[in-house]
Amino acid sequence: MRRILILFLDGVGLGLNDAATNPFVAANTPNLSMLMSGQKLVSEQCAFSENNFSFVPADACMGVAGIPQSATGQATIMTGVNVPAYIGKHWGPKPSVEIRALVRRDNILQQMRSNNYTVRLANAYPPSFLKQLQSGRRSPSSIQFAFETVGTRLCNIEDLRGGRALAADFTGEGLRSHFGFEDIPILSLNEAGKRLALLAQESDLLLFDCWQTDVVGHRGTMGVAINTVERLDAAIGGILAGWCEADGLIVITSDHGNLEDKTTRRHTCNKVPVLLFGDGHSSVAANINDLSDIAPALISYLE
Ligand SMILES: [Zn+2]
């Protein structure tokens, strides 16, 4: 079955092989290590394919000077257009009018919808966020905006309670501690990953937006960053446990670097990882060099 699960990680690049500065080297990540056959997620790692897995480093700068940003990076992933080259700069965090126009004109979700494929965003958003989005006081990210262009309803707390969505921190703990939803069922990281794998079976494309990796890249200490990577690894373990190769393709990627270099609180110009697991991984991997290659590679995978 040709299904796609995209685990989108905001602000995750391939950094130095240095446990003092790169939480991906310092953290204990049994699941990522297993996927990578013991290789590390670092800048010196070359692309490889084996068994049911491929790794490709993807260029997030795409020939444009400056530091990559979320709006242009995400819009590029969703459209297959080199958006920073098109508008002449990297831009973020939220998409400008010009970037929105590009995303509205065409994106992978629209192409899939026009071929009767179903697409879903797995994130559950708190009511305050949805209200701000609706009133225009908050702008959607490029990824959220792309889902808006195909009329996707963003999931809420009720969807989370009903097991139809996932909290941004995977477990739901943040909704209890920061938003006061005391009755939110808390999932373990493993259960959250399994839920994502299960939800992915209900649509042709399911995307989960993990934005906390970028927030921790900007604000977190090395200790918090290591913990974030280890939590991510545990959630990935859950996804893999709930996924067999015939279920389709898992894509784990990012819009720009940040978390992998704790010597800076800014984004980096590092390449970003593209991890591909399952059906069709090596042919998709063979077509990816930079972020603009992801959408066309996934479209040809579906065809
Ligand atoms: Zn950022």
Task: Write a structural description.
The chain has helices at residues 23-26, 30-35, 70-79, 83-87, 97-105, 108-114, 127-135, 142-148, 157-161, 173-177, 189-200, 212-219, 222-241, 281-286, 294-302, and strands at 4-9, 48-50, 53-58, 119-121, 205-210, 249-254, 272-278. With 303 residues, the chain is α/β, with parallel strands linked by helices. It has a single domain (4-302), classed as Alkaline Phosphatase, subunit A. It has a seven-stranded mixed beta sheet with strand order 2-3-7-6-1-5-4, with helices on both faces. β2 and β3 (53-58) form a beta hairpin. α3 (70-79) runs parallel beside α5 (97-105) and α11 (189-200) crosses α13. The mean pLDDT is 96. Zinc ion binds next to α12.
Summarize the structure.
The protein is α/β, with parallel strands linked by helices.
Summary keywords:
single chain; about 300 residues; alpha/beta; Alkaline Phosphatase, subunit A; seven-stranded mixed sheet; about 10% strand; binds zinc ion
Gross CATH architecture: 3-Layer(aba) Sandwich
Largest sheet: 7 strands, mixed
Give the radius of gyration. Answer: 18 Å
Mean of all residue-level pLDDT scores:
96
Anisotropy-based shape: globular
The helix fraction, in percent, is 40-55%
Q: Count every helix, treating DSSP H or I runs of 4 or more residues as helices.
A: 15
Q: Kindly report how far apart the N and C termini lie.
A: 12 Å
User: Could you give the order of strands across the largest sheet?
Assistant: 2-3-7-6-1-5-4
How many extended strands? Answer: 7
Beta-strand proportion: 5-15%
Please state the structural category.
Answer: alpha/beta
Unreliable residue stretches: none
